[in-house]
Amino acid sequence: MIIRSSTRIPRAIVLQLSRPAARRTFLSGSSAPANQNRIFDNIRQPNDLHTLTLLSATNNRPLITLWSASWCSTCQTVKPLVKGLIEDERVGEAEGGLAFAEVELDSTLIGDLGVKYMITSMPTLLAFSRQEAQFDTKLVKPELMKNKEFLREWLLNEARRGGRAGGGGGSLFGGLFGR
């Protein structure tokens, strides 16, 4: 593949390619499991989100996004809960896997991405399946996001969707206000 100097490669992809592969034990002759959960670098501009939704759609793996800001204390409480369930407890791997990325709404390069995806409060958890935002299952209530068992079940339901369409359109009010 030839890359021209004017082509911009999203930071998340560059960092993923430059990291050494994680050491895991596999059966002989096998490759990395397709259902392994993935944690990506933070999204700081619209192209990063587009790249990750495309990558997740290619793998039939829902992308879970946490929309937050550095000054949001509730976001800083929710983030380790979500990451811990996905990365440490591997919630969703048995159902086909999940991908996770945080969207930094206070990034100067993020543009109107929050408006495009109807982010009306922080933190917000929004899943993408086949590059479609799943507005019907959007989580906006911090008390639900802080409930580890509720969060686990929400993640499992998104993983069961398996990157398939469903819930993308939703009703106007369901899409605007979420759960």
From TrEMBL:
Its domain of life reads: Eukaryota
Q: Which Pfam families match?
A: Thioredoxin
**Residues annotated as domain Thioredoxin:** 59-136
CDD domains reported for this sequence: TRX_family
Q: What is this protein called?
A: Thioredoxin domain-containing protein
